[in-house]
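To whoever is on call:

I kicked off a structure prediction for a single chain this morning and the downstream step that reads the tokens threw a length-mismatch warning. I double-checked the sequence; it's 152 residues and nothing unusual in it as far as I can see. Pasting both halves so you can look.
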Amino acid sequence: MKTSTSEGKHGIQWTAKMKLDYLNFTDDLTLTSHTQQQMQEKTTSVAAASTAGDLNIHKGKSKVLRYNTACNNRITVDAEALEDVKTFTYLGSIIDEHGESDADVKARIGKARAAYLQLKNIWNSRQLSTNIKVRIFNINVETVLLYGAETW
């Protein structure tokens, strides 16, 4: 992966001395570039490296999210255009075309609310102490709410 993405050094500026070329976790990969041309070159390079390693890119699952760009040229893999999207979820975090986390925060609150409501019988129970209820809340609701919060 490093070889196929770093030939042109077309990542986004991460720190004063470092660029972020890609994010990689198991079988999830995110490529980053400043221009459409750089992204197409990087995508083509990754596709070639994948083919050489007997791996397939699932074009139906591959998406393009454009941030702060007016260019609408399509990114392609093997002459097939990839779908442009306004938001996508990567490792549980919602990313949008404006670089904001509002949608992710709202989704987390909704999931935490659902987790809270599923435990309604526990909250209404007179047999459980407040201490036990707080522990159950921290384990079953708070963890859902704060999952991925470090990305906000």
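Update from on-call: the warning came from a stale cache, not from the record. Cleared it. Sanity check on the structure: The chain has a mean pLDDT of 84.
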